[in-house]
Write the structure tokens for this entry.
Amino acid sequence: MRLPCGCTTKYMATSFCRRVLASSYFGVLGRRGCNTAAFMPEAAGFEGVSGRAALQEFSVSNSESFWAAVARHRLSWIAPFHTVQDCDLSRGRIKWFEGGKLNVSVNCLDRHVHTCPERVALIWERDEKGSEVKYTYRELLEMTCRLGNLLRRHGVKKGDCVTIYMPTCPLAVASMLACARIGAAHNVVFAGFSADALAERIRDAQSSTVITVNQGVRGGKVTELKKTVDTAVQSCPTVQKVFVAMRTDNPVAMTARDIAMEEEMLKEDVVCEPAAMNSEDVLFLLYTSGSTGKPKGLVHTQAGYLLYAALTHRYVFGYHDGDVFGCVADIGWITGHSYSVYGPLANGGTTVLFESTPIYPDPGRYWDMVERLKISQFYGAPTAIRLLLKYGDQWVNKYDRSSLKTLGTVGEPINTEAWEWYHRVVGEGRCPVVDTWWQTETGGICIAPRPSDPEAEIVPGMAMRPFFGIKPVLMDSEGKVLPSNNTSGALCMAQPWPGMARTIHNNHQRFIETYCQPYPGYFFTGDGANRSAEGYYQITGRLDDVINVSGHRIGTAEIEDVVNQCSSVAESAVIGYSHTIKGEGVYAFVVLKKDVDIKEEDLCRELNNMVSKKIAKYACPDCIQFVKRLPKTRSGKIMRRVLRKVADCDLNSLGDLSTLDDPATVQEIIQGHSELLSKQKK
Ligand code: PRX
């Protein structure tokens, strides 16, 4: 007999299963009676806290008691923590659960294997439709242990950092968990990044070990990941070993440094002693873009990150045992880390690893997968929703979506049309849509419609309510907290939470300057937000020079650095502009050197190739406009505000141009823009 938690009766007598069954039973009571402890078993000891609103309030005002109780309940500890938190946001000091020792892979695997070994942990939705592969918790633990032993045998030690350059697949998850098992940090680099971008991240992380695959397969196209690694490591003297897994049957050239991963794993034992890690030891680095040309390696640590990913996964999406969680993000981004891997696995859930694209082999791919895998929670990006909306309802309606309970979005604001379509067509008007706001820096979801009350009102296109323990504030331009509703300002967090990033690898000063100094005592997110009359948050977008292309973050300075390396270019200004599918597109205004005699089309091609080679394809400009000069203030600063308005065809509100050195530049640029538009229309 199969139980609701996915186990067979054989394993029923275990304490874990009893807890699962008990909590789902109480879940029903909780809905009826609004009993706090029933809704959130962790809250059982909070005297006098009755109801979900009170619990939310308690989690913020009694943050230490809240997080201590949750940490004890949710995580398995080797040694208990003695100090819940030791944080000083003004100095960038963030420490949680000190004294505690644990192993993240044990929390994600062993404890579920002990109770429900045959429960499915991963469903790998391979690029080739209909060829999904399932891995039980037992199988994933075995794979992780073999790999952990292999890495250890090849000299990877506690404290080392392993770079993982792989598509979304079970071996990538096992690689992350194997690092966690032996105490090494991982640095997953999105497999769409170029050799140069990969090399920069390997060097900054000082990795001596890289894990990759022979080739990637996505949308039916093969990418040469091993060759990209070969090119990258030429400029990475630290790299000693490259582990190569086989995603396709095509052999690749191997050097003395390369190790055939699967073959070698077979020789290893299926038991691997887990390292006892301190709560604040590094779990992973993840590089993301900031407002300078250099990406920053945000550092997440063990206990706080895992706890926060698990708790948000459970409560924001209403994940219950037996559900199938479908997050379609790539593991190269934070969403893949927190909601394809760590959150669901810490909760003993079944998680989908999506290797393909929303339109391969056709625009019904997501919904075909929902039907086939019986996905309960689907978590995707607004850009994909906007794209699929254009293909029409028939691609959705073809498939049975009755398994769906919750729909989520992340990465960028979702416009009302896309939200309505997602809700009405995909969710048949019966699944709540949760627009979740968070960042690489926050580790997990911070603002989302229903963290505490599964029946609370949801307003389309709004992230709405803070998660447990999260205290958002809006700041005015003078750095003062805006106390009332119906207002907008810079979004900051007034108190620390366990999931937040601890530092920037090798550059704590940059961490302090970026996040802690702009509003002393607060964590600055870099985003702007509105707070409605009802107190709900709506994110308006970045306040810095970071743009969000199809939900992928990129600093305009990074693109400018590449464009400016072209021998024909004198200078450039890159900005984001509204794009109907991507949310934001990349617009480059480029000034050529004198006497450059190359056709504009050829130059555009060259610039695109350069960006693709140095960064990634997604960062390539959608529009390149050659201009004689850029609009600059008398002090020489480029007036980007004006460029954004021109690119968005918003010429009625160009604002004050009196500080421009020569206001005539603006007219030239407007003229050039309209010529470009009419050329594109033809
Ligand atoms: O601008 C916000 C936007 O994405 C940024 C974070 O990007 P990244 O670190 O790559 O993480 C993306 C996935 C968590 C934020 O600063 N963003 C994220 N979610 C939303 C959003 N903007 C509006 N609404 C959201 N729900």
About this structure: The pocket of adenosine-5'-monophosphate-propyl ester is lined by residues 288, 334-335, 410-413, 435-440, 463, 525-527, 539, 541-542, 548, 553 (CB under 6 Å).
